[in-house]
Amino acid sequence: MVRTRKERKNVNEIKLAHPDRSAVPSEETLLNLAQDRNLFEQAERQSRKKSKLEDEDDDGEPLSPMAERIMDTILWSVSLAMLHFTLDVLVQHQYAISIIWPLIIIRSIQACAVFSFLIYVLHPHPSATKFVPGLPLKFQEPLRQSIFFVAGVCSGCYLIHISNKYGYLAVMKQSPPLGCIWVWSIIELNLPLGVLSLAVTGGFFYEGGYTIKAPY
Q1: Strand, helix or coil at 23?
Q2: Per residue in 35-74, pLDDT tens?
Q3: In terms of Cα–Cα distance, which of 104, 73, 74, 70 is closest to 86?
Q4: Residues 6 or more apart from 92 whose CB is under 8 A from it?
Q5: Which one of 42, 56, 105, 115 is separated from 26 by 20 to 30 angstroms, measured CA to CA?
């Protein structure tokens, strides 16, 4: 910015001088000032108050064991119903069948109802350690694992069999529920039994001479 002569003259009239270093600096620091005004105590009180409010929000009314079991059942059954819906659409698309959405939705809702009953009875939950009345507790989990192992092997092997030997109508009707039962059974099994179940199904596929290609 261009200065005028008057401005340059005023600047030249300002006398330059060193700052006064003889004054004694104040011993008061920001920390001392904060302590004098109790700022740290106020911040701590506000922090405790905020934490207390958050704890009160978190400590709401807990769900009862029965409500938790029902919510768990709904979550599992809806997930399997969605899987049933997906498999139903895929198998009809595989055979180039016109997809009728209302029928697929109705079948998915029916599957959801059936899976809700099965999951409520068979799925393990802390509130229901015994699903077979009168059976000792130590035999409950082995029996449950045995049921899912047999269901996984049977559903997987039968799904392979009908996919290779039956007509498309039988495949379209039976594949979605069989696929859901197979997937659910493998998920419920522990790792060794799950691997063994898949190995048995794979051996059935190999020894039976089945193929993953369409038979037509």
Answers
A1: coil
A2: 655 666 777 777 777 776 666 555 556 778 888 999 999 9
A3: 104
A4: 98, 99, 104, 172
A5: 42
| pLDDT, the chain, mean | 83
Query: Got the DSSP string for 136-151?
Result: -HHHHHHHHHHHHHHH
Going 117 to 73 to 108 to 143, the CA torsion angle's sign is: negative
- Among 178, 176, 165, which residue's Cα sits nearest to residue 209? 165
pTM over 0.85: no
- Distance of alpha carbon 143 from alpha carbon 135, whole angstroms: 10
CA distances from 207 to 195, 200, 201 (A): 18, 10, 10
- Is pLDDT of 11 > 70? no
Report how far residue 184's alpha carbon sits from residue 69's, in angstroms, rounded to the nearest whole number: 17
Q: Say how far residue 135 (Cα) sits from the centre of its chain.
A: 33
Cα separation, 203 vs 189, in Å, equals 19
Please name the amino acid found at residue 148.
F
